[in-house]
Amino acid sequence: MESIISIKGLSKTYAEGFTALNNIDLEIQRGEIFALLGPNGAGKTTLISIICGIVNPSCGDVKVNGHNIQRDYRTARTEIGLVPQEIATDAFETVWAAVRFSRGLFGKAPDPAYLEKILRQLSLWEKKDNKIITLSGGMKRRLMIAKALSHEPNVLFLDEPTAGVDVELRQDMWRMVRGLRDSGVTVILTTHYIEEAEEMADRVGVINRGELVLVEEKHVLMKKMGEKELSLQLPEPLQEIPQILADLPLTLSSDGYQLVYRFDIKSEDTGLTEFLRRLNAANIEFRDLHTRESSLEEIFVNLVHGARLEREEQLSKEVQE
């Protein structure tokens, strides 16, 4: 699939010596929803700011739809719509004036029909003559998206798009984002809501301490790195795990009524057959069972934790040397 954003060898080190990004290589495909996950301070906002031309990189190359963000800044910037996390608007301007002005900033000819279409898609048309100060928080966030789309960009960045938004409005915004993707807009979002990435993203990138830990299609990531649980409900409680089962990856609930076996989805030998054989040998009966796969949140936490341990080990070796 064709890339609409191409990032090669991108790094950013600030004057005081802090490295926010370290040798990032990333290809974002045209027409996908790409979720960028990472803890606070991981480098997500710095990466977005460089692509959008707000921050200058220390080194590396970034192209948006074939246009270099530094050598061909104006053209590259017109390809991008940015919805920052913080809501910043002129409180006493009307909704219509705000989106019309945003379109004009990019040198686009007036197109009332297009702006009406955007406002209707975002359920803002009825509010077009209202001053922004009268809008709810959710409506103001929708307006930020309308302004970002006013100049018809091919790429839309959403930085924490549903922060502080209630559950119902969050669902509405998810539907809206999918609609944008279906219309051909490439959407890149950063989020602290793991379920948001799990619900919407086609691919997921995990960034930690300025380094891209992993980029993978969401369903492949969960298949490759997820863990599955087989939970058995017991008719009689166990006081402890029997010796015949002691070497297996089992946990016993505090009340003794649930036995949980964990296994790796990607492993050729899950050990389930051996587990069930030993259960039978131990004369342990069960009345119900169910399975559960790891969520994207659990995978994310494991990835970040593993990257942190790897970095600490590397630093320890450098100190010893």
Automatic annotation (TrEMBL):
GO terms for molecular function: ATP binding; ATP hydrolysis activity. Pfam families: ABC_tran. Residues 5-234 form the ABC transporter domain. Keywords: ATP-binding, Nucleotide-binding, Transport. CDD domains: ABC_DR_subfamily_A. This is ABC transporter ATP-binding protein. The lineage of its organism: Bacteria, Pseudomonadati, Pseudomonadota, Gammaproteobacteria, Cellvibrionales.
